[in-house]
Design goal:
four-stranded antiparallel sheet; six-stranded mixed sheet; 470 residues; alpha/beta
C-alpha cells in the first residue's frame, strides 16, 4: 500500500535534498516543466556572461575588461582607470573605485533582471510544489506512521540480533524473582575495544543472601568496568536483548540507580562533592527492594574520615532500611568498609586480583571473593609518568602512615624522610612511644619462660631496631 507514496517521493525529491527549504534544489529535473524552464534560464547565465565578456573585450579593445557580480550591485562591467578613455558611450557608470570603474549596459541590465527574477521565481515555485506534495502525503499520514513504526521495530530487533550473533551473546532467563545471576559476564562495549589484552569475563550473583557487594581492588584493575557491565547486562536483558555472558538468570528490576564519576555544577553553586551527595540522596530516597544500585566510590570529595563515615552509614542504611534493601554493587578504595561483612549479614566482600612482582603490578581482571589489602595507587601513578622522585617520596610517606610511626615526642613521623640527617634523641624506655615492630615484639613475649640470656639478646635486638628507626 505504501508503494505509491514511495514512488511519488522518489519521482519528486532529489536523492540528497538540502536541509533548508530556502536553499532550493529540492525537486528533480523533469518533475515540473515550469521549474525546468526557469532553471535553464538561471543555468544559461554563466554562458551568456562569458560570451558577452568576450564580445565587449573585442569591441572596446580592453583586454582586461571583465564582467562580475555581487549581492549589493548585481552584474557590472569592470574596467581599470587606465583604460577608462576607451569606454564606449553606451556604457552607464555604476560605481567609481580607486583603481577601477564599474559600468552596465541596457543589455546587461535586461539579463540581470531575467536571471535574478528566474532565481526568485525558482524559490517561490519550489516552495509551492513542496507544500502541495506535503499536503498530498498528509492524507496518507496514518499509513506512513504505521509502516514507520513497524520498520523501526524490525530495525531495532534486527540490530540486537546482529550484535548477538556477531559477539556470541546468549539468551538470558528473565524472571520475577529478586536474584540476579550472571556467569562469565562481559562489558558489551569494552570487550570490542582494541586494548591489547583479552577481555576477562566475570560472574555476579545478587540475591537475598548477597544483597550488597563491596568491591575493592587497585586503581585501573577494572572495578568500574565490572559495575557498569552488570548494569548494562541487566538493562539489555529487560529490553529483550541477548546478552554477553555464558549463562544468566535475571530478575526484573524497577530502576537502575548509578552514582558514578566526578562532576560539578558550578552554575548552580554545587561542588563535586555536593553533586555526589545529591545523587546519593536521590538513590536513598527512591530505591526499592526491586532496584539495582551501582555505587562507584562515595565520599571522595571530603576528608578521609568524613567520606569513610558517610560510605559506612550508607551501606548500613541500604542493608537495614525495610523500604530499600536494594541489590547493590559498591566499588571503593575505603578498605575499612570490608569490615561490614562481619556485622551485616547480606554484605559480601569481593576484590579484583592483581599480580605483584619487582614493584610492578599486572592486572588479572578477575573478580573473586575476599577483600584487597591495598590500592596500588603509587604504582599506577608511576605508570602514568609521575617523576621518580615523587614516587619514592610517596612510598616513604605511605610506609610511615601504614606503620603508624611516632617520634620521641609522640608525634606522627609522616613527614620524616629516610635520608634525613636529623638525629633523634634516644627513646625513653618508659615514654610509651614505640614503633609497631617494637611494640608487637614486646607484647608477644612469654616472660615466664624467658631466660636471662634470652632477655639480654632481645634487649640488644630492640635497641638496634630503635637506633635504625624501625
Amino acid at each position: 500500500e505504501i508503494k505509491e507514496i514511495v514512488e511519488k517521493v522518489e519521482e519528486a525529491i532529489v536523492d540528497a535534498p538540502p536541509n533548508n527549504l530556502r536553499d532550493g534544489g529540492i525537486f528533480k529535473d523533469g518533475y515540473s516543466t515550469e521549474l525546468d524552464e526557469l532553471r535553464l534560464i538561471s543555468k544559461s547565465g554563466r554562458k551568456f556572461i562569458k560570451e558577452l565578456e568576450a564580445r565587449e573585450r573585442k569591441r572596446t579593445g580592453i583586454t582586461k575588461l571583465r564582467i562580475s557580480f555581487n549581492r549589493v550591485f548585481g552584474y557590472f562591467i569592470e574596467v581599470t582607470r587606465a583604460h577608462s578613455e576607451n569606454v564606449p558611450e553606451d556604457y552607464i557608470r555604476k560605481q567609481t573605485l580607486v583603481n577601477t570603474e564599474r559600468f552596465f549596459t541596457p543589455e546587461l541590465k535586461e539579463f540581470e533582471e531575467k536571471v535574478l527574477g528566474a532565481q526568485e521565481k525558482i524559490n517561490e515555485l519550489e516552495n509551492i510544489l513542496f507544500i502541495k506534495l506535503r499536503e498530498e502525503l498528509i492524507s496518507r499520514i496514518n499509513l506512513i506512521q504505521e509502516v514507520s513504526t513497524f520498520v523501526s521495530e524490525i530495525d531495532a530487533i534486527q540490530s540486537l540480533a546482529f550484535v548477538a550473533r556477531s559477539n556470541n551473546y546468549i539468551k538470558p532467563k528473565v524472571t520475577d524473582d529478586s536474584e540476579i545471576f550472571i556467569k562469565d559476564g562481559r562489558h558489551p562495549v569494552v570487550e570490542l575495544q582494541p586494548l591489547g589484552e583479552p577481555f576477562i569475563p566475570n560472574d555476579c550473583r545478587l540475591n537475598s543472601e548477597e544483597q550488597i557487594l563491596i568491591i575493592t581492588g587497585p586503581n585501573m584493575a577494572g572495578k568500574s568496568t565490572y559495575l557498569r557491565q552488570v548494569a548494562l547486562i541487566v538493562l539489555m536483558a529487560q529490553v529483550g536483548s541477548f546478552i554477553p555472558a555464558s549463562e544468566a538468570e535475571i530478575g526484573i528490576v524497577d530502576r537502575i540507580f548509578t552514582r558514578i564519576g566526578a562532576a560539578d555544577n558550578i552554575v548552580m553553586g554545587q561542588s563535586t562533592f555536593m553533586v555526589e551527595m545529591t545523587e546519593t540522596a536521590n538513590i536513598l530516597n527512591n530505591a526499592s527492594d526491586k532496584s539495582l544500585v551501582i555505587l562507584d566510590e562515595i565520599g571522595r570529595g571530603t576528608s578521609t574520615f568524613d567520606g569513610l563515615s558517610i560510605a559506612w552509614a550508607l551501606v548500613e542504611y541500604i542493608h537495614n532500611h525495610p523500604g530499600i534493601k536494594a541489590k547493590t554493587l559498591f566499588a571503593t578504595h575505603y578498605h575499612e568498609l570490608t569490615e561490614l561483612e562481619l556485622t551485616l549479614d547480606r554484605v559480601k566482600n569481593y576484590n579484583i586480583l592483581v599480580k605483584e612482582w619487582n614493584d610492578k603490578i599486572r592486572f588479572l581482571r578477575k573478580v573473586v571473593p575476599g577483600n584487597a589489602d591495598k590500592s596500588y595507587g603509587i604504582q599506577v601513578a608511576k605508570l602514568a609518568g609521575i617523576p621518580e622522585e615523587v614516587i619514592l617520596r610517596a612510598k616513604e610517606v605511605l610506609q610511615n602512615l601504614e606503620e603508624e610511626n611516632f617520634d620521641i615526642n609522640g608525634n606522627p613521623v609522616l613527614a620524616r624522610s629516610k635520608d634525613s640527617k636529623k638525629k633523634e634523641l634516644q627513646l625513653s624506655l618508659f615514654s610509651g612511644h614505640f614503633s609497631d615492630p617494637v611494640r608487637k615484639k614486646i607484647k608477644s613475649l612469654d616472660l615466664d619462660n624467658l631466660t636471662p640470656i634470652q632477655a639480654l639478646d632481645l634487649l640488644n635486638e630492640l635497641k638496634g631496631k630503635i637506633e635504625n628507626g624501625e
